[in-house]
Amino acid sequence: MDKPTADRPPLPASAPEAPRGQTFEPGWNCWKTAVADRMSVLVHGAEYFAALETALRSARRSILIIGWDFDPRIRLRLDVSEEESPPLGRLLRQLVEERPELEVRVLVWSSAVAHGPSGTAELLIGTEWQQHPRISLRLDTTHPLYAAHHQKIVAIDGALAFTGGIDLTVNRWDTDEHLHRDPRRKSHAGAFYGPIHDVQVAFDGEAAREVFDHACWRWKKGTGESPECVPGSLPWPENARTHFTDVDLAIARTVPDWGDGRSAHEAARLTEDMLWAAERTIYIEAQYFAATFLGDVLERRLSEPDGPEVIAIVSLASHGFIERQIMGRNRDRLIRRLRRADRHRRFRIYNPVVPGGDKDCSVLIHSKLVISDDRLLRVGSSNLNNRSVGLDTELDVAIEARDETDRRAVAALRNHLLAEHLGVPEAVFDATFAKTGSLVQTIERLNTGARGLRSFDAIRTRGSTRPVPGTSLLDPARPFEPPWLLRRRDKRITRRRDA
């Protein structure tokens, strides 16, 4: 069978053969694989930010931050005083002043000043925390028209890396309680923002060094400068629970064709191959649910007589015109398409809610996570929309369980997430699942509280299932410019930098 193209995979008649232990193929569905001595799955901003602050305080030579957005005014720990945990920018300044060899580099998507939630002019004009020779904050303009730099990476001393769905910006902090009105969950202006669910991973070892190398490449490509990329050592943050040890980590990227021959479409292929590899269950958490390839694969899987159950946890609300008209409507049409294909009643799609006074309060799903059976786990920055396939830059990581210990850890993570969304103790979820052997039946038995999962019942099977007009323009899977124009532009940029 010919391998599919990155932007529109053809529909195979059956799942491609992928022997257990051989899901990851460097050069196809991942950039490379590397060993992580330890790996932690950090659920929610509060857990990630606390572990990150611990790691930052241990840095000695290099802190390299790559982001879609960045706000130096956020605090990473809200359980202690500002004196003990100062705003991020001030913390970074303190660290470089205390450590003469430490350099801090922050690379942010250039359009974050207009489109990011921080909306801060500090990214353009700078403030006091940046006024240090070993702190550099740069805006990355090296991307195709309408594209975004969407990777979320923090690499420390080349020895520890964080990546996933969480940027170091406003409106990202929350706990597993997802309270309707948490007094700690406020914007800089003092306004409440709603509950948000997200996932990040931390890992060390060879895998962290490879992500560090990629971040250094991003810095060089975005700024024209070659940072010193000599890996060191770093203690593991004690507040990051280790879920996996000595595990092979697949690193998958999306890099659009920007004229230099370094394009990559591994992330979407990785997700697709994981969906095909599932035998019993597919568990998805996604902000968007609109990618063309996603519908193509899941339609076939749901049509199989003995295919897997598919559970998707997605956001309800769409923000802004483009999200409502393209992402929101295409989500609804994809749900309709999959429900038509779901002759065996194995598909469920939900949005989590918490009590919000006299009505449900929807939880924003910002995580980008896929779990196939108890064997494959993927966390990253890639959304399940078309632009994450080949327009935006993305970085995902994945593991394949090698033994019973790893499989139990993957299953425990999936069950932990579902128990949280349902508002029930993990032990109750585990016991119910042990009886039913079905995620669908377990959810339906336990989904009875004020906190729980709400299905998209208003979306019936009648109506269009095709992408809405304008999708190829507003959610494209590739850059608009032809490669020859990108190469010409890239040569001009290189000449200007060398001048």
Can you characterise this structure?
The chain has 499 residues and is of the alpha+beta class. The chain folds into 2 domains: 32-246, Endonuclease Chain A (Endonuclease, Chain A), CATH 3.30.870.10; 267-473, Endonuclease Chain A (Endonuclease, Chain A, 2-Layer Sandwich). 32% of the residues lie in helices and 22% in strands. It contains 14 helices and 19 strands. The protein has helices spanning 45-56, 88-98, 112-115, 122-125, 205-223, 266-277, 292-303, 320-341, 387-390, 404-422, 426-436, 439-446, 471-474, 483-498, and strands at residues 32-43, 62-67, 103-109, 135-140, 153-156, 160-164, 196-197, 199-204, 244-255, 264-265, 281-286, 309-314, 347-356, 359-362, 364-365, 369-372, 376-380, 394-400, 452-455. The protein has a 17-stranded mixed beta sheet that branches. Helix 6 (266-277) runs parallel beside helix 7 and helix 7 (292-303) runs parallel beside helix 8 (320-341). It is globular, with a radius of gyration of 22 Å.
